[in-house]
Amino acid sequence: MSTKFAVSRAITTTVFLCGLFALPALAVAAERPLGADPVAACAALSGAGSGAIKVDTAALTEPKPLTVAPGGPTPAARISPATPQFCRVLGHIDPIDPKAPPIRFQLNLPLQWNGRSVQYGGGGFNGVLITGLSLPPAAPFDSASPLARGFATYGTDSGHETKPGEPPQLFAANDEAFVNFAHASYKKVRDAAAMLMERAYGAKPERMYFVGSSEGGREGLTMAQRYPADFDGIFARVPVINWVGLQHAGTRAGLATWGEGWIRPAQVKLVHDAVLAACDAQDGVADALVEDAVGCKARFDPAKLLCASGTSGDACLSEAQVNAIRTLLSPYKFPFALANGVTEYPGWGVSGEGTKSYGPTGGWSAWWLGSAPPALPPVPANGIAWVYGAGGIAHIFARDPNFDVRKYRVEDFAERVREVSALMDSTNPDLSAFKARGGKLIMLEYMADYAQSPYAGIGYFEQVQKRMGEAATAEFARLYAAPGVDHVGSGAPSSVDMLSVLVDWVEKGRAPDDLTVVEQQPILPITVDRSLPLCRWPAWPQYKAGDSKSAASFVCAR
Fold this sequence. Notes:
The longest helix is centred in the middle third of the chain and has 27 residues, at 175-201. The model is unreliable at 1-27 (pLDDT under 50). By secondary structure, the chain is α/β, with parallel strands linked by helices. It is built from 15 helices and 20 strands. Helix 1 packs parallel to helix 3 (175-201) and helix 3 packs across helix 4. Helices cover 31% and strands 17% of the residues.
């Protein structure tokens, strides 16, 4: 038996045995205190564990007020919600392969527990400990955190730590670390957290929820597909579910900007303005926002910006630049099938090209183009998609840190691509087991997302409907699409308390219909700048009459 197969088999067996920790199908009971003496009850968890699960420290923390940082990589990252006193448990799960890193986790136990828990997903290539103390994805900035509402919350580093200055894909050289990143760590940490909750409160969690965005959204859908008995409700925002497709499509989009194809910042504004000119008023109101993103993609033609013969400059685009945009908007087709029969990654959409950056994130200039043309090896000034995609091709598919991605041919690495797809791609449309146990799923796509294509999640949801039937899918799953919003929630109204929506559906049977999203700035006092309907796919907000900054002035057009 090969070492690689033995490690994979051992991981699978461990995860399967952890899955025997079942959830009771009970209504949430009255709050449970963290023992008669919370200090002693929390301290008693230190050093506790079972098998590979080890608790390193456990201690009560002091309450903290809501704070807003002066800067951050995303708008939401600037918000630190108020937290009550709670028991912070830090632990790890030992690896099977002694060369693999441990899986680290943090569990936060409220002094008065409502019987519920929330597992937070990660982002990017992970490699940092997710604390479970932030607001859930898309939550309004002034809302209470799940911990403050009585949920036990937790997160993990997914089984590796990324050190400053090193490529984020470096961990993938170890097979167990990569399997942990793909799915095993989230399952193991879920079961460890459930065990520790029972030890702390004398009762098993009665409802377990998962919330995640981007990579964390992929993790949520992974749990629904691989471990359907583990969660009552899952919220997946902008999920990177066709992971292999994104790495390849992102790299191709970067290569299209090599040399003369790179689009300068002033030309990004040129395209942004051209998209608004073609589409803004088509949805009923000129509000600097494209509500009908699907219709706009059909209307916008980048060739109309082509420079006249003999001219150049920032007021037009060269043929290489027009071709780069067409590459971005078109699907990446594989010459063979990936997991679950997937054969392509969809092209990106239009609108939001010039969305301003928060830290390293934003519209085209942050995600796709960067502030400098693509380089090898990638540099910080390059677009995030190039850093992730080119690094992924080299470290994960070619498995050669010095590989020149300009020479990459997917056919030459077909076996490895399929292997990674089977681990990483959360594209299985058969959610019948998750539905049968009563699970509820909410997906949210942002239509001006350039970190990943919103059409990947949309296509997946439509495959679920095709596999299970639209009526059956509507009994347990919802897909929403917010126009004009970037990957991290900036550019247009994007905030909604989706955890409460999910809890109401799971525990009260209130299936959500169209909702409302609001736009806020991470500045105290936190106020609402504007709002829009959040429509169930494939509907979109169409203006009727009134204040264009109010959701009441729109209807969901179907």
